[in-house]
Amino acid sequence: MPTHRPAPHHIDSIPLTRHAWQRLSQRGIGREGLLAAFDFGREIIDRGASTLFIGRKEVAKARRWGIDIEDHRGVHVVCSHDGQVITLYRNQELTLHTTRRASHHRAA
Questions:
Q1: Packing angle between helix 18-26 and helix 30-40, nearest 10 degrees?
Q2: Domain ranges of the chain
């Protein structure tokens, strides 16, 4: 069993945009899913934003503490550089947004 359990967050300590509040309920993530992401989520930094993701490894980590977050698997919480939650969504895949180069075809 791990020796250090993450300090639990409180919903009032997490700043959310109006958009994030709407998505919290619209997408069926709820406060518990948001808190689970902050307490156990893996942080990925991409394009100036921080995304907290709950995948199978994070579910297993929480289970070692006797906490079941399986229902929150696939939750992504996107935060701005100052820590404010911008949006939330659910996707089982951890896909980073990558910049794709436009293909240019030269006329012969």
A1: 110
A2: 14-90
Phi, psi values for residue 6, rounded to 5°:
-60, 145
> How far is it, in rounded angstroms, from Cα 54 to Cα 80?
18
> In terms of pTM, does the model score above 0.90?
no
Report the pLDDT value the prediction gives residue 51, as an integer from 0 to 100. 92
- Please say whether the beta carbons of 92 and 72 come within 8 A: no
- 86 vs 4, 20, 63, CA distance in Å? 29, 5, 28
The helix (H) or strand (E) run that includes residue 26 is: helix 18-26
CA distance 108 to 104: 13
